[in-house]
C-alpha cells in the first residue's frame, strides 16, 4: 500500500476561458456537484454519492489525495467537474481519475457545449490541459485509465493525449421496442424453451420472487449474500476474492447504505422458497441501468441459471420503467455478445512530466498490452486461468486452519 500523502492546499487556475477551482474532498463542493450531475454528460461513477463513498473508503485506504477540479465559465456557471487525485507509485507522484478498479468508466462530468468545444478545438483543449496541470501541481505523470472513447455521442477529448487500448471493452444494449420482442430477437426458440424449463425447475424448489432491498437490514442481507456467492464464483475461475481488501467491501457497503433513501444503487435478488438464488448490485443514472455486480448460488443452483433468470426480470422491469440503456459495463464475457449491440472501446492515456514519469508510463503500457493479449487469446487465457486457480489452491492450503 502506498504511503499516505499530506493533503494539498486548494488553489485556482485559468484554462481556456474557464476558472478552475480545486477541492480536497467531494464534500467541499457537494451542492454544486449534485446539481451539475443532474444534466452533465458523464456516468454514474462520477456522481457525488459514488465518489464520496469511494474517497472515504478505497481512496483513503490507499493514500490517494483528491484533487477535484471544478471549471466555471465567465458567468460563474459550472462547465465541468473532474474528480482527480494524486497517489504515490514507485516513488513517483501520479495524477489520475478517482475511482480505481471499482469505477467501470473513468472520466469527468461536462456541460455538453464545453465537451464539444474541447473535442473539436485542439487549441482549446491544449489550453484547458495546461490549466489542469497547473491546478494539479507538481506531478511526474498524468495517467488516465478506462476512458470511454465517446461520451454521449461526443469524442472524449482526453484521447488527444498519447493513448492505448485498455485490456477490456464495455458492452451495452438499447432497450427497444418492448421486452417480448427484444427477448425473442436475442434468444432463439430452443433457448427460450430451455429458459422456461429452468424457470419451472427453480419454481419447484419453492415460490419464486423478485425482491428489491428497501431498508438497511435487507440491503446488508443481500450484499452479504452477493459477496459470498461472488467469492465462490471467482474461486472457480482462479480469481482472488475481490472483496478481500476491507476497503473494497466497505466501499460497496457504504455506497449501498447511502442509497437506501435516495441514491444510484439498487440491490435486488431472486429468491426461491425464501432462499436467495441470485443477487444484483445495479446502478441507475440519467436513463441508464448499470448491471455492475451480480452473483448466484453456484453450489446448489448453477444448473438452473438463476443469475440469468434475475437478469431477465431486471431487463423486463427496466423496459417497463422507460430506461433507455441497459449497460453491462466493463468486461468481455461471451454472454454479452448475445445481448449487446453496442461495444465501447476503453482507452488509457498518459502525459509524462518528468523522466521518472516516462519510465513509469512505459511500464503501464507494457503491462496493459500484456493483459490485453492474454484476454484476447483463448489458449493464453485458459493457461492464465489454470495458473491462477493453482495459485489460489496453494495459497489456501497455507492458510491456518480455524479451530473447530
Automatic annotation (TrEMBL):
Keywords: Transferase. It comes from the Bacteria. InterPro entries: Acyl_CoA_acyltransferase, BioF2-like_GNAT_dom. GO terms for molecular function: transferase activity. Signal peptide: none annotated. Coiled coil: none annotated. Residues 192-336 form the BioF2-like acetyltransferase domain. This is CelD/BcsL family acetyltransferase involved in cellulose biosynthesis.
